[in-house]
Batch of 3 targets.
Target 1
Amino acid sequence: MSRTPPLLLTGARLLDPESGTATPGSWLLVEEGRIAARGTGAAPVREDAETVDLGEATLMPGLIDAHVHATAFSADLGAAADQSASYVTAWAATSLSAMLGRGFTTVRDVGGADWGLALAVEEGLIDGPRLAFGGKALSQTGGHGDFRPRGRHGSGGDGCCPGAGLVCDGAVEFRRAAREQLRTGAHHVKVMLSGGVASPTDRIDSTQSSEDELRAVVEEAEAANRYVTGHAYTARAVNRGLRLGVRCIEHGNLIDESSVELFREHDAFLVPTLVTYHELSRKGPRYGLPPESQAKVDTVLHRGLEALRMAHEGGVRIAFGTDLLGGMQEHQSNEFAIRGQVQPADAVIRSATSGAAELLGFAGEVGTLQEGARADLLVVDGDPLTDLALLAEPERGVRAVVTAGTVRRGRLGA
């Protein structure tokens, strides 16, 4: 097998997400898919390297979306249960490829993707970002992962499109289900802590999964050196999950100051997903969102920004997520613009790079320009620290996407 020559990128503005600074007149050396060295001023002379002058473009880590559903081809998750697994996989491949094109070099799927999809990406069968998966999300009967219409009875089964959810009842079933996800190599286990928008029979303000059920899942995840992430909206549901050992909360639109204190106390993460409510409000019915779900959107839509502001000002660890379904996934990058209304650009970028990497357990591996990290990189025309729209509009701002030192989209040179 031929050895890939080193890649030396010069004339770069290196964006360091940890410090929130950008250093012009810099260079970065990639060897064997990893960052070998970096510096400012004159670049080292490497006759064995391919050398590219970036023309003072920004060089930054590839982006991380910590809340995607790669297999969710429709907003009607109940109807998706009847679709062919082959079709779902083909749709997921298209979805993941588009995410890579927007600059996302790592994504975390929190309900839908399984070990086979992750392996297909790793082996190059699917052209997409590195995929951290959780397998099936665990839900009680009648919970957010149970998508049966009110009149359908019997077992909840998988409850959703292939691989997305599993209905469980009782600590024994939750424990067995958690072990099954972990057996397949899941990076995390997801549980439903409250009602949700896309599920047909639960209330947003409900709490879900008993304390014994949640303790069983947390215990199994910790035993496997993994973590539990929980879907929750209200402060009551969020606080309950945090006290029981859930390490990450998805959404959290209806949190309060007591929640902020608990996030800090438990060193837990929050993953807001604001863009999905904007798009569900505008286009949900067009992409299959049932009427009973559409009626729930306004409940969480208008509180999301205030919850993000509260969490940011309170020092909560925040990661970037989008949670878009079906054709609405094309608006993934708009999350940057929405968050930029209440957070400074450096904080938003950190949430989509080094901050998200910490949540996923990939700190020092991705989301950073540290030496030794995987060379997942973006070349951006301009400075996202002063113009966050460059990431919100990747077709305008992102010149090239690089994974493990290989150009996957665009071009390096000006």
Target 2
Amino acid sequence: MHIKPDRSKGPAFETINQIGFLPVAGLSLPNGIEVSMITAGSQDVTKIDWMFPAGAVQAGKPLLASTVGNLLMEGTTSRTSQEISGMLDFYGAYLSTQTFYHNTVVTLICLTKELPDMLPLVEDIIKNPAFDKRETDIYINKRRQEYILDSEKVKTIAARRFPEVVFGANHPYGKTLKLSHFDELTRDELFEFHKNAYTPLGCRIIVSGQPGNEIGDLLVKYFGSSQWLPGTVNLNGVGEIEPLGQKVHLIEKEGALQSALRIGRPLFNNNHPDFIPLQIVNTILGGYFGSRLMTSVREEKGLTYGIGSNIVAYKNGGMWVIGSEVMGEMRQAAVGAIIDEMVRLTKEPVPENELEVVKNYMLGELMRNFDGPFSTSDIFRSLWEYDLDFTFYAKMVEEITKIDQQRIMQLSEKYLNPDDFYVVVAGK
């Protein structure tokens, strides 16, 4: 008998009280590399991340770390870039690199049955890049042209300038790429940085999905050898920030129709006790489509098509940044409207219904972020960099659930003082 559903009633509402984290197992390779395993999912597909201390901080100069990372797949001492691409296409595999401030991550996604063929390829790419002169020149020239084109965009100008203002021009988080860096980079630097950074020292491997029973032996075979010698890369190298004394920075762009805004301040990372509750304050202010900045600056005042606020965490610090683009003649009004919303959070309690919406939104996003082994492994990888584990997100659920109006006002008074914020405007 077919029962017709009652579509006049929505699904039952359930409050999220906890997240069911996938279990993480560990093993050590003979050369000391730690491997974390998140075994879950219904498909025989595997994702493996290799994390190396090969970021911009270790490189010490812009462009070097990302160039080494991106050129890994452009040829080895035994394979051309065409052969590498052809092999990936043949097996339907995905291989990429991402370079951050403190590490570069090499990621492989493939069918589990293809791991015996894919892991020797990844080993070759990681250990034996050729940094072929032709491939290197093509890459550098392409990056140079992209840099020149992006330099015409006001949002790029503001985005490049803001970290320099907040952290200082000599701080690793404040160093920005200049056009001159493209002419200064040498192939010898690429080889030297790779020799020291892409080694077992500081390497971490994270496996997720359904890797099969042979994964341990495969990792030992291709990445566990004691003959793969550790390098001498500096794992830290971050000093005190030196923000610029001037709080407002205007960068004129001839012919620009719009102005890009960046308003923010230096902050801490997610090891600080106020980091989690500040995420709730940030969400209210500008962290989702129904935020106060979107409602006020976009919907009510019509000053922009989009605006957002974000708290960015780094291994040795962080920043709070609000970003938008407005018509040139509206930039002063937009800055004023943003500051008004910051001040309002320090003066007026957040209505209970608004706070409830934000809480439910944040809890829903947390659940979505832990949907499946691959996304869970991405979160685990980020936590590992800060010496944290999944209890961080268990605490986040608790903080979101219990935070009240008074606590939000206290945090806002402490961290949303307009005098602590820097303003960068690029454009008309």
Target 3
Amino acid sequence: MKKTVDVALIGGGIMSATLGTLLKQLQPDWEIQIFERLGDLAQESSNPWNNAGTGHSALCELNYTPQKSDGSIEISSAVKVNEQFQVSRQFWSYLVDEGALPEPRSFINPTPHMSFVWGETNVEYLRKRFDALKDHPLFAGMQYSEDPAVIHGWAPLMMPGRLKSEPVAATHIPSGTDVDFGALSNYLIDNLVESGSELSTGIVVKNLKRQRDGSWDLKLRHDIGGTPVDTINARFVFVGAGGYALNLLQKSGIKEIRGFGGFPVSGEFLRTDNPEIVAAHSAKVYGKAAVGSPPMSVPHLDLRVVDGTGSLMFGPYAGFSPKFLKTGSVLDLFASIRWHNLLPMVAAGISNLSLVKYLVSQLMASPETKFEELKQFVPNAKPEDWYRITAGQRVQVMKKDPKKIGVLQFGTEVVSSADGTIAGLLGASPGASTAVPIMLGLVEKCFPERMNDWRPKIEKMVPSFGQQLSDSPELAQATLERTAKTLHINP
């Protein structure tokens, strides 16, 4: 007889870990089983070396605050992303208080966030951005300077060797963070296992088939050797398999996945572990993307703290691979093409020729040219101190649009069946940092009949649930202070 579970989570990264933890808190008697294709958890996009790990809160990411045609700055996207990150912080704080997460510094560390630009036009833009954000309750404490001496105090590594005649500007906010989502994923899933959930690693979900009662049969195989594993039946399935989510949702046959395609983009960073260099830079610094470049190209110099040790990463440098995962197949892109998504994919490609041009230029760029980009941030950087690492694969969403045949989307999107028995996550940034609000939205969408019973517990885990912190400066300040204290991230 097939084993039946209440919830099957496909993928052992931050999304599955977050949803599993939420559901276990809300319905402790549910049986949850997690399937991870690789031998270890969080080895793809949740791995700390495969993502920027900024704790995306739009404190420094300039692509969230575009300049409008009238010269003003649009801050709505920045506010939305910051709101979402505060939801994640509240949930993590609750789990720390409950003992479900260990010492916070093992996965989150206080790290100032900075924006840095040069050139008169960019300086004027950053000044306007600061003016638009400085009085917002979620951006309290942001500072602005065009004084090289002040900026040197914030980021000593970035100013020596720079032309004194060059206009520069920076914002600095000490309440930023660095998050190791690999460690966090492992802690969350470890706690799930301790609470009775079952974890199966090295197991591939090859197919999903809906049963007459609305449940799903999962056809399983060992990743190594491909030998079959007993089929599992699940009343609810979440596909959090990163780039492979598209393929599995297509195999499920749900009509809601029709028209969706994926465009894979790989990335590279330059990294240094030199203690002297790392000691001279204790911030995450985002610059401004070149005119015409896609949002994914925003250059940044990040402090990363992994296992208590700091390193610096600079990038990203875009690349291309047809794989949907770093450990995927070169046939992934071609295997994802269906009759219903071919036209939207072609249309999205044609309307994003600037992205194609950008990718080609990145692929053709020499190592020397790429290093010169680092020197725009660190003028005195030496090649012998830095080495190249390959980041995680990102699969951008391509889909139908009411106004266009096909569009390329740079965010994330939850796709779920009409009956709410299966759901999956497509897309990339800001991803991990907004895992909690994304999964809360999924819970509302897939389990509407349980929300009245679950709401009190959700509000205990996330006190601002259903509210906007930006609407109440007092609530925003109290929430920021409380979570900073619990997570030990007071600057």
